[in-house]
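Suppose you are handed a protein chain with no further information: no name, no annotation, nothing but its sequence. What can you learn? This example shows the usual starting point.
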Amino acid sequence: MIRILVLTAIALVSLAFTPVAKFNPLSQFSSQSIQSQIEISEFAAVVTSAKQARKKLKKRLRRKKCSLARVGSETQQKRCVRKKLKRIDSDKDGIVKKKDNCLDVSNFDQANSDADSHGDACDNCPATTNEDQADVNVNGVGNACETDTDSSTV
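A reasonable first move is to predict its three-dimensional structure. Written in structure tokens, the prediction is:
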């Protein structure tokens, strides 16, 4: 650790005495900041889309299964919508259970890189098809994705 600090200090001092060099020690952090902002905005877009999908689902329930004519009052309608939503979209991603590839994990985009029946958000091996989701050593990584399935490190 001390060696790294000394080498870094020497590099900074040598650059400080080079009049032509333009050195920005924060440049790598700036690019990380830009990358973080992009990732955050992508996440916000997915969250917004999930909220929009959930709103559409609520509207559809209000019109069909929980209409005022069926349930009687607005209070009953709200209860009906809440109850039905819990049953058909328990992970709150706006995708009904029949079409949801991750029933217990919210994943509006329904990404599924390996084309098995498990979405990437809940797949213990998202890059390799593994329908059974076997994980002998119970470490969260599917057997199909690791070579050491018994945790022997051999």
